[in-house]
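Subject: CS1 type fimbrial major subunit

B.,
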Amino acid sequence: MFKKIAISAPVLALAFVSSAAMAVPIDHTVEVYADIPSSDFYVQPSKLDTVQQPQQLAWDMDNSELKGISRNFRAKSSVESGTGNAIKASLTAPAFITSGEDDIELTVKFNDVALSVGSDAEVIAAGEAQNEVIAALSIEPVAPDEGYQVGKYTGFVRMQFDAP
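Prediction pasted inline below.
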């Protein structure tokens, strides 16, 4: 009986060692996406991180003000419609950043044309849109009447472009 136990112990130890050395499967999920615009109509950022990464509005310590940002987009429309091939844009939601307690309104312009909710504005004229245009998107904070309040602010600027 002692021999059976003596033989079984090394077998049992070998079983533990071999199970510890076995690899455990590891799963990963990578999110991928593609946005392939048509060659007839597109409005794309010159640098993809403009729409893939948060954009920081910098705090100017010397002047106690929040600075805006400007990012370039490439745009083209050779789609002929009732308005020629002009490109129009609008905001699909109010533009602001919030700390949860305080909001800061944002002024949004594309190609120096102010965008608003529910109202399409022609941002690139029909004659210009025929060939690719580099147009600036600018996002500027509107200083609150009571001044800027301390906090961490976040938000989204949601725009829609169309060649109606």
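The two ends are 91 Å apart (CA to CA).

T.
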